[in-house]
Amino acid sequence: MPQVQQYIDELRRRFGNVTVLHQTASETFLQVEHVVPERGYTEVLCVALGAKFPRAPPIVTYFDGRAISIASSDSSTDGGWDSSTSKLADAVGNAFANLADLWGSVAPPSMESLLAQLGLLSDSMLQDIVSNPNCLESYAYQLPFFKAIRDAGGQTIDEIERVANENLKLQPVLDQLRDEVEELQRSLEQNAQSVQKVLQSTPLLNSISSPENLAKTLAADVKALDAQGEEIARRLLQVDYATDRRRFDELLEEYRQKAKERHVMDLKRRAYCASLT
């Protein structure tokens, strides 16, 4: 454990009040205090630096021996410690944050506060606490931090009830909005079905998805009318005017109508193509 003093100095620069509780050549045991301004109380943690530190992580505990995690909420390293990059002050800072999250608004008890409370008791009262579980339970019940826990629990219940009541007030509005959304969904589905029916009944709409496609469609229509006109002309030439004048006149009129239809379609095609340039 090389130059442990530099790590003690690092903690003092960050947290100020650092006490060396025990130190040997192979291990150092520290007590670190930290004021949490947003919570309004002071936290106390014990930090053990073993013989393999900093290759091995520090061990951070509460005064009752319970281990406190040194990993931050967004830590990507195993256990929150990387021997090559992690800093002791950051690890202890994470532990303080985790302890604050554990206790919330209630100030966690410390050994000093408990000793101060016990110091106010008489010897007979201390004996009763040690020997009588009921007396111990009664004494613990009136300790300040237990009272703070009960008060915080009551506040939490009140907050839950308040939120629940707010939710109940919002329920009618939520139901109305849900009905409106469902109605809009049904209307959207009906409109989509109507559009689909129109597309299915009008193939031209499916083919026209761009100006170029429309121009191609018009050109194809002109070509189709040309083919139809040629077919009528072929049948017309096969009729003998002298023997079947009526049939000849019918096909001739049909050819004229088809030619007129083709001419109109070609004019539309030319006009549309000209509009694109």
From TrEMBL:
Family: Belongs to the VPS37 family.
InterPro entries: Mod_r (IPR009851)
Gene Ontology BP annotations: protein targeting to membrane; protein targeting to vacuole; ubiquitin-dependent protein catabolic process via the multivesicular body sorting pathway
Any single Gene Ontology cellular-component annotation: ESCRT I complex
Localization of this protein: Endosome
Protein name: VPS37 C-terminal domain-containing protein
Organism field: Trypanosoma rangeli SC58
Domain annotation VPS37 C-terminal: ranges: 121-267
Main location (coarse class): other
Keyword DNA repair: no
Pfam (any one): Mod_r
Alphabetized PANTHER family for the sequence: VACUOLAR PROTEIN SORTING-ASSOCIATED PROTEIN 37 (PTHR13678), VACUOLAR PROTEIN SORTING-ASSOCIATED PROTEIN 37A (PTHR13678:SF2)
Alphabetized UniProt keyword annotations: Endosome, Protein transport, Transport
